[in-house]
């Protein structure tokens, strides 16, 4: 399967010098905006990035462009998945030579892939376990802090060991933080004290939809598409087991056809990570995997990186999240430290603790 078989014509084109207010109005009709200057491709606009930022009244589109990798008609689905994960952009433009002919969207990709055998697999093979959660009486300040630290946009709400709700970044933006007074995403927004003490129970969605761990991938994707959500809580008898997202389900697709015993992929806006060295990172990870290869056997590892604004001794604060799927199960852990090397080391150490614990069972 390639881009030509997945292509969608549901997109809009806008120029870089148009007002960002025009783009926001377009997002009410379409979820994909491609920025073109004449016949030249400039990038895309990402709706969630715009809803997280302060928007100056006279801002232009060019200030918010994200460069998304270009696909051609023959780009295979595995490469499309890798490019989506690597760029952290899930609507990629398709070009026939230099002409824009459409886009490939994650929803269409997953919709097609679940018709294969992959759709019959159980979601328990792909979920993130040991996920963070909050209680109904926790406040919004704690939620914002977790969103920032863990680089996530949704949290289960648990009371007395049972799931009672879910709270998302979208809930905060729509119900708490007024559009004319939005703080920048990624900031702790300590100055917004009037928001921070609001209890989670006043904002959360009660009795959220959940799936059991033995549900099929096909069912999970169909529910996410029908409900227009990016992830689903996995639970049994209202007890939290984990979360599965569209991004989680891209990972096994991206690693198909690779010869390495454990496929390694860095993801995120890597061009914005100061000090990021792919070769050095791969070397550190390969040394780590060699210590555990006889136990792990085969699988894939995705390393998600995000840079925060804070710095110490000239080094930026980096959040590093690792998802390692192997024959022995899924291991998910994060590290946050100043500098790429230290953040990666902390995340690898956290994964190693999980592996050692599994070895002792």
**Head-to-tail CA distance between termini:** 41 Å
Mean pLDDT: 86
Q: What is the oligomer described by this structure?
A: single chain
Relevant CATH superfamily of the largest domain: CBS-domain
CATH structural fold name of the largest domain: CBS-domain
Low-confidence stretches: 178-191
What amount of the residues lies in strands? 25-35%
**Annotation, overall tally of beta strands:** 17
Radius of gyration: 20 Å
- Helical proportion? 25-40%
Order of helices and strands: HEHEEHEHEEHEHEEHHEEHEEHEHEEEH
Shape: globular
Class of secondary structure makeup: alpha/beta
CATH hierarchy: architecture of the largest domain? Roll
List keywords for this structure.
single chain; globular; alpha/beta; CBS-domain; 361 residues; Double Stranded RNA Binding Domain; 32% helix; 4-stranded mixed sheet
Account of the 3D structure:
This protein has helices at 3-6, 20-26, 47-51, 77-87, 106-113, 140-150, 169-175, 193-196, 217-227, 246-254, 278-296, 340-359; strands at residues 12-14, 33-37, 40-45, 71-72, 91-96, 99-105, 128-129, 154-159, 162-168, 205-206, 210-211, 231-236, 239-245, 262-267, 299-312, 315-326, 329-338. With 361 residues, the protein is of the alpha/beta class. The chain has a four-stranded mixed beta sheet with strand order 7-13-12-11. It has a four-stranded mixed beta sheet with strand order 14-15-16-17. A three-stranded mixed beta sheet has the order 1-2-3. Helix 4 (77-87) crosses helix 10 (246-254) and helix 5 (106-113) packs across helix 10. The longest helix has 20 residues, at 340-359. The two termini are 41 Å apart.
């Amino acid at each position: 399967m390639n881009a030509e078989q997945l292509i969608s014509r549901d997109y809009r084109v806008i120029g870089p010098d148009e007002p960002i207010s025009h783009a926001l109005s377009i997002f009410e009709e379409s979820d994909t905006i491609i920025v073109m200057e004449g016949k030249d491709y400039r990038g895309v606009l990402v709706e969630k990035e715009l809803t997280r930022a302060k928007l100056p009244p006279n801002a232009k589109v060019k200030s918010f462009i994200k460069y998304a990798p270009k696909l051609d008609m023959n780009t295979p689905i595995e490469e499309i998945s890798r490019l989506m994960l690597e760029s952290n952009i899930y609507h990629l433009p398709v070009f026939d030579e230099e002409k824009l002919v459409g886009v490939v969207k994650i929803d269409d990709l997953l919709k097609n892939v679940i018709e294969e055998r992959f759709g019959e697999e159980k979601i328990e093979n792909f979920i993130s376990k040991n996920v963070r959660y909050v209680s109904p009486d926790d406040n919004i300040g704690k939620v914002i802090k977790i969103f920032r630290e863990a680089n996530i946009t949704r949290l289960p709400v648990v009371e007395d060991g049972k799931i009672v709700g879910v709270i998302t970044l979208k809930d905060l933006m729509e119900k708490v933080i007024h559009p004319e007074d939005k703080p920048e995403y990624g900031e702790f927004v300590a100055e917004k004290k009037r928001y921070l003490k609001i209890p989670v129970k006043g904002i959360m969605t009660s009795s959220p939809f959940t799936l059991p761990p033995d549900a099929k991938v096909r069912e999970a994707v169909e529910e996410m598409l029908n409900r227009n959500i990016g992830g689903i809580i996995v639970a049994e008898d209202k007890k939290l087991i984990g979360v599965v997202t569209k991004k989680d389900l891209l990972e096994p697709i991206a690693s198909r056809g690779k010869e390495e015993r454990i496929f390694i992929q860095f993801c995120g806006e890597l061009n914005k990570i100061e000090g990021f060295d792919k070769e050095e990172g791969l070397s550190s990870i390969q040394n780590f995997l060699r210590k555990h290869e006889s136990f792990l056997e085969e699988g894939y590892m995705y390393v998600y990186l995000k840079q925060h604004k804070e710095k110490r001794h000239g080094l930026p604060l980096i959040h590093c999240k690792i998802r390692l799927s192997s024959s022995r199960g899924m291991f998910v852990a994060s590290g946050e430290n100043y500098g790429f090397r230290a953040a990666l080391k902390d995340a690898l150490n956290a994964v190693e603790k999980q592996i050692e614990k599994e070895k002792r069972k």
